[in-house]
Write a structure and sequence with these properties.
Shape: globular
Helix content: 25-40%
Number of strands: 29
Strand content: 15-25%
Structural class: alpha+beta
Number of helices: 14
Radius of gyration: 27 Å
């Protein structure tokens, strides 16, 4: 059974990522890219769908002797390959050991469903993506170090690797590695066999175009379509395992040097974090969020995934389950803003180049999201063989929202290009032409209804936030042309900017309640309205802005003080075209903290920000939402759209002066 979402930690190599739970299980890993099929999909199903657990092999009281396992239960290799040895129970490498003088104990025989106890402690090693988990056991303390070396470094090849080092800290501990590879999101059982490579015996799993190679310093054996290793570590011992993906038609990948890879990985992250220019009171939270955003960046292209997971539910047991392993222009754009403001110009430049390639010569048909290499076809389908995270179905891959019209994206892209220009990023003529073509398209279509920022699956509407961001696109273009010698139809654009502004204030504002509304003529509120003062559409002290903030506090806040995106309707189909409810949207809660600071209520803003920091998990990660009923994180994890506003709010509160909590 998968752990709670917040019980996972992230490791990655900036091309894919894995989630590691407190019990030492890797329950999610897609190879070789973020959007590739998962090799470990236990997160969305059971252990039958793939996992890799390294943890204590807990002693248990001796019970009646197990019956030998029949040979038919073992996987056998095709003729000509060296198969795993089939090991009956009597020959399995388990000893009967005394334990605390309380009788005879032994380690249970391997079963896929026998989890290790949760780690007593876990942390990232400094400002890195190297995870450490420690268990305090009756015989001693043991540490497991998990990481993925960044690909593309001079010392590294181009293939993805996960390395796990088991270290004896004190005393002695019995440990177990249980590896169950299931390709194609848990559907395909690979052919697993041993290959002799020099003096080393290596384990390889092959299915179709994929192969995964296991190297380790402990002897392995096969049972019930799972690869096990049982071993003991004493103080000072370090036993390493490495999992390497390779196209199956190629030869064996090089055997890794785990210790060298660890040193190289830590050095990479130290050097990268050293570029951060933020030195304020929230540095720990900001740096961890920046590392997370870097981990969600697909290094070969600069594309940034919204999250490394699919179908972690916004409503436990419900249908609001989406694939976030793609690059949303909106998410990537606000990520670029945060990176630029904290000193990371190379990442910002790479994203701009990704954008130009993805949009190419067709900006009039701008999609709201693309694949991480700029792919346009993101067809949505369901994986019916997966029962879903805590029975939340369907499990989806691909995303049908890619074909939606969301006018706000035009504003966010132009805002990002403007910010890049204002912060001194070298001029790019293609970016300049893209901006002009986007504005030309908006001149003709800004007044069209759309699906809006939240990708509603109901009918199109005139969403207020979409119109506001269309205004932003025109406003930023005017500003750029006013500050450069470039010629453009400034008077026509100024008239367009004024016309959009007047239209929003006339049709998107409810004077009786003194608040802007979700869409023209509606009564519902929407947390995206909190962005009105932040993008400069109206000043923070405008009574309509203050009225909107206070209305959202009254109508969209949860009892614990966080913010919903918009009202939902329980079992009925809501304004978004979907049944069910969802948790508080964390990005919206950060936006409220920003607004409170902007209208002078800095104490309230700090209080809300501190509450948001407090619901991060123990290694500083946030999902998309917070369920106020269950008091737990929900939605895809970790979520760029949560970590970016965390950075932005920290920067704003730091600029307000004073200390956290004051």
């Amino acid at each position: 059974m998968a752990a709670r979402i917040e019980d996972y930690a992230l490791i990655g190599d900036m091309q894919t990522a894995a989630l590691v739970s407190r019990d030492g299980a890797v329950d999610w890993l897609c190879l070789p890219r973020f959007d590739s099929p998962a090799v470990f999909a236990g997160l969305l199903g059971t252990d039958e769908h793939g996992f890799w657990r390294i943890g204590p092999a807990e002693p248990v009281p001796v019970v009646e002797e197990e019956q030998p396992v029949e040979a038919e239960s073992f996987a056998t290799a095709p003729f000509g390959a060296e198969p795993f040895e089939t090991v009956p129970f009597e020959a399995a490498p388990f000893e009967t050991v005394p334990f605390e003088d309380s009788g005879e104990f032994r380690v249970l025989p391997p079963t896929a469903a026998a989890p290790a106890p949760p780690a007593a402690r876990r942390r990232y090693r400094g400002d890195s993506l190297v995870l450490e988990q420690e268990w305090d056991l009756p015989g001693g303390t043991v540490r497991v170090i998990d990481f993925m070396p960044p690909r593309g470094l001079p010392e590294r090849g181009a293939v993805p690797q996960m390395i796990r080092i088991v270290e004896g800290v004190s005393g002695q501990a019995r440990m177990r590695s249980a590896l169950r590879m299931r390709f194609s999101y848990g559907r395909v059982v690979p052919w697993v066999h041993r290959v002799e490579d020099g003096e080393q015996s290596r384990t390889v799993a092959v299915a179709g175009p994929d192969s995964v190679w296991l190297d380790g310093e402990a002897e392995t054996y096969g049972r019930n379509l799972t690869t096990y290793a049982d071993f003991t570590v004493s103080e000072g011992d370090r036993i390493a395992f490495a999992l390497t993906w390779q196209p199956s038609h190629l030869g064996a990948p090089d055997q890794p040097d785990p210790e060298e890879a660890l040193a190289t990985t830590e050095e990479f992250w130290r050097d990268w974090v050293a570029q951060c220019t933020y030195q304020g009171p929230y540095r720990e939270a900001v740096v961890r969020s920046l590392i997370t955003l870097k981990a969600l960046t697909y290094a070969p292209t600069g594309g940034i995934v919204a999250a490394p997971t699919t179908s972690l539910p916004e409503d436990i047991g419900g249908v609001r389950n989406w694939d976030y392993r793609f690059t949303w222009l909106r998410d990537a754009t606000i990520t670029l803003s945060s990176l630029l403001r904290t000193g990371y110009r190379d990442e910002a430049r790479a994203w701009r180049e990704w954008l130009l390639r993805a949009v190419a010569g067709d900006p009039e048909n701008l999609q709201i999201m693309y694949g991480i290499a700029g792919e346009r076809e993101l067809s949505e389908t369901t994986l019916d063989w997966l029962p879903g995270y805590e029975n939340s179905v369907p499990v989806r891959i691909g995303n049908g929202a890619a074909d939606q019209l969301q006018l706000d994206v035009y504003g966010e892209v132009v805002e990002a290009l403007h910010l890049a220009h204002m912060t001194g990023l070298a001029r790019n003529d293609h970016a300049h032409m893209l901006q002009l073509r986007l504005i030309s398209w908006l001149e003709q279509h800004w007044n069209d209804p759309d699906e809006g920022i939240w990708e509603v699956r109901g009918p199109r509407r005139h969403f207020v936030h979409s119109k506001v961001m269309a205004w932003v696109a025109v406003d930023r273009t005017i500003r750029m042309f006013e500050q450069t010698p470039n010629e453009g139809p400034l008077e026509r654009w100024r008239e367009l900017r004024d016309r959009i502004h007047e239209d929003v204030c006339e049709h998107g504002y409810d004077p009786d309640r003194n608040t802007f509304t979700q869409s023209y003529g509606s009564k519902e509120l929407d947390a995206s309205l909190l962005l009105i003062p932040q993008v400069g559409f109206l000043p923070p002290d405008d009574k309509r802005v203050i009225g909107t903030i206070e209305a959202i506090q009254r109508e969209l806040m949860t009892p614990d003080g966080f913010v919903l995106r918009y009202p939902t309707s329980g079992g009925e189909e809501g304004v978004d075209g979907l049944p069910g409810d969802e948790g508080a949207f964390l990005a919206c809660s950060f936006w409220l903290a920003d607004d409170l600071a902007m209208i002078g209520r800095v104490g309230e803003a700090r209080e809300l920000f501190d509450k948001l920091l407090a619901i991060r998990n123990d290694v500083g990660l946030l999902a998309e939402e917070w369920d106020p009923r269950l008091q737990r994180q929900v939605g895809n994890f970790p979520q760029a759209f949560s970590h970016v506003p965390l950075i932005d709010t920290a920067l704003r509160l730091t600029a307000c002066g004073g200390l956290p909590g004051l």
